[in-house]
What we know:
The strands form two sheets. The protein has a six-stranded mixed β-sheet, sandwiched between helices. The model has no long low-confidence stretch (mean pLDDT 94). It is globular. It has helices at residues 40-47, 72-78, 94-104, 110-123, 139-151, 169-182, 196-202, 220-224, 230-236; strands at residues 2-11, 14-24, 29-33, 55-60, 63-64, 79-82, 157-161, 188-192, 205-210, 213-219. The chain has one domain (2-236): Rossmann fold (3-Layer(aba) Sandwich), CATH 3.40.50. By secondary structure, the protein is an alpha/beta fold. The chain has nine helices and ten strands. Residues 40-41, 161 line the site of magnesium ion (MG).
Amino acid sequence: xxxxxxxxxxxxxxxxxxxxxxxxxxxxxxxxxxxxxxxxxxxxxxxxxxxxxxxxxxxxxxxxxxxxxxxxxxxxxxxxxxxxxxxxxxxxxxxxxxxxxxxxxxxxxxxxxxxxxxxxxxxxxxxxxxxxxxxxxxxxxxxxxxxxxxxxxxxxxxxxxxxxxxxxxxxxxxxxxxxxxxxxxxxxxxxxxxxxxxxxxxxxxxxxxxxxxxxxxxxxxxxxxxxxxxxxxxxxxxx
Length: 239
Ligand SMILES: Nc1ncnc2c1ncn2[C@@H]1O[C@H](COP(=O)(O)OP(=O)(O)OP(=O)(O)O)[C@@H](O)[C@H]1O
Ligand SMILES: [Mg+2]
């Protein structure tokens, strides 16, 4: 579903990704971990073309996303993105946030979009919050609305960049459970996180980034068995 071939990216001469090559199968859940500044956010932002790359190729569902053939709307419908900081529109209530792309990208009439949006909010136990503004929701609820907003577009791929790291500790669990709930839906997920317990439960593979390089791409069990080489061992020492 996702294939990176020799991807290199730098910010003003400073390399952030160095010759990253890797593959993620349809329906797989990959957790990306690594120290701060290692290029995790940059990596998943290039998969949604939020960041351009200087060399290499990124294929999603067989198409090279950095070639101009994909419209932004195509791209945003196929690949959902969840940000650390939720990124909800503050002047729109939960349901309006969730239905925005359905109405303006898909062009669905309001009624139809709202039926889909409400069903998704309900699935996340948020039906009662549909008319709440983001400021009236807890961080955990806001993040679940943001995930609902990504999912109503029925993306093939969902990218999550530290979806729980801006949350108070007591809300981390509810958001992780929501993401776990999506596992097995056939959705391909790439999740940057420091929550190694989550990786243990939910990931199929783990990618370890260090200094812009993909240092390890291994089956979850092998990763946690401390059986994947010195880079992984060194990283796991801190957990
Ligand atoms: N917009 C930017 N402009 C310039 N440099 C950037 C930009 N974004 C990231 N970088 C640099 O690229 C490198 C990788 O950053 P990135 O944000 O991908 O790391 P990260 O692994 O996500 O870190 P963290 O765990 O802190 O989120 C870092 O050296 C960072 O300073
Ligand atoms: Mg980051």
